[in-house]
Design brief:
Layout lengths: L10 H6 L4 H25 L3 H10 L1 H18 L7
């Protein structure tokens, strides 16, 4: 828990929402993009969480990249019904 090293993805929840094989590939692409963005920030500021947070809160270029990714995630997710 101190140094996590993976992503846990609830595939059952995604199939319940109607995702198919191609959709899972797109989800993988979104995850890859987010990891690449984090690596970009970490390579610039190092491994301290406070420096990472400061960079993503104050670097306009990073904020724009996050917003693009966030928009892509929301557009994709909104195609699928959400069950409560």
């Amino acid at each position: 828990a101190i140094s996590p090293g993976g992503i846990r993805l609830g595939t059952s929840a995604l199939t319940t929402r109607g995702l198919n094989k191609e959709d899972f590939s797109y989800v993988g692409n979104l995850l890859h993009r987010s990891i690449q963005l984090c690596i970009e920030v970490q390579n610039k500021v190092g491994k301290k969480l406070k420096d990472f947070k400061n960079e993503i809160e104050n670097n306009q270029e990073i904020i724009e990249k996050i917003n693009i990714l966030k928009n892509d995630v929301n557009l994709f997710a909104n195609k699928f019904e959400f069950y409560e």
